[in-house]
Design brief:
Layout: H1 13-20, E1 26-30, H2 33-47, H3 54-58, E2 59-61, E3 66-67, H4 72-75, H5 79-87, E4 95-99, H6 100-105, H7 107-117, E5 129-132, E6 137-140, H8 165-186
Parallel strand pairs: 1-4
Antiparallel strand pairs: 2-3, 5-6
Helix pairs in contact: 5-8
Protein name: Sulfotransferase
EC number: 2.8.2.-
Family: Belongs to the sulfotransferase 1 family.
Length: 193
């Protein structure tokens, strides 16, 4: 088992993974690309407080509203483009697409899908989770033999900066055709409007 967010978006990864094992099962966690871009920016901002505003980075030209798709925070959310690259090496049946939103609202349901996809007995259920109000995320209840529950690290669940609604609308318009293509490719509607 291997995990990294950059595999899905790195051009060379599908070929390399395929050469290692063409039978690999691939689990890709995706979330609303607008929220994902803002989260990415928030993470970077926490490490580099002098970063320009989200709007300055997201647009090539703020007057025309031209989105800068070369900025990694934006580019990563063009899931259809990345999936096309992977489908050159792996059939769709080798993929499970997990909704980041559903992972928060129904972690047991999404983990059930993961266990099914991997051919595992369903042992992780809703009794293993509780919602952490401070984090705004579900956490694993205290595992046996451990003194405390397992929750996402300090970098998760931090508040996002307020982004003007017109910026959000332009981003939603930008991502809409890519999202629709991704839904069509995966046969799954994630409900990102």
């Amino acid at each position: 088992m291997e995990k990294t967010p950059s595999y899905f978006i790195t051009k060379e990864s599908p070929r390399r993974v395929h050469s290692m094992s063409r039978h690999t099962k691939l689990i890709v966690v995706v979330r609303d690309p607008v929220t994902r871009a803002i989260s990415d920016y928030t993470q970077t901002l926490s490490k580099s407080p002098r970063l320009p505003s989200f709007q300055r980075l997201a647009f090539r030209n703020t007057t025309t509203g031209l989105i800068d798709a070369s900025w990694s925070a934006i580019r990563i959310g063009i899931y259809a483009k990345h999936l096309e690259n992977w489908l050159r090496y792996f059939p769709l049946s080798r993929f499970l697409f997990v909704s980041g939103e559903w992972l928060v609202t129904d972690p047991a349901g999404e983990m059930g899908r993961v266990q099914d996809f991997l051919g595992l007995k369903r042992v992780v259920t809703d009794k293993h989770f509780y919602f952490n109000q401070t984090k705004g995320f579900p956490c694993l209840k205290k595992p046996e033999g451990s003194s405390r529950p397992r929750c996402l690290g300090k970098s998760k669940g931090r508040p996002h900066p307020v982004i003007p609604s017109e910026v959000l609308l332009k981003l939603r318009d930008f991502y809409r055709p890519f999202n629709l293509k991704f839904y069509q490719m995966t046969g799954q509607d994630f409900g990102w409007n």
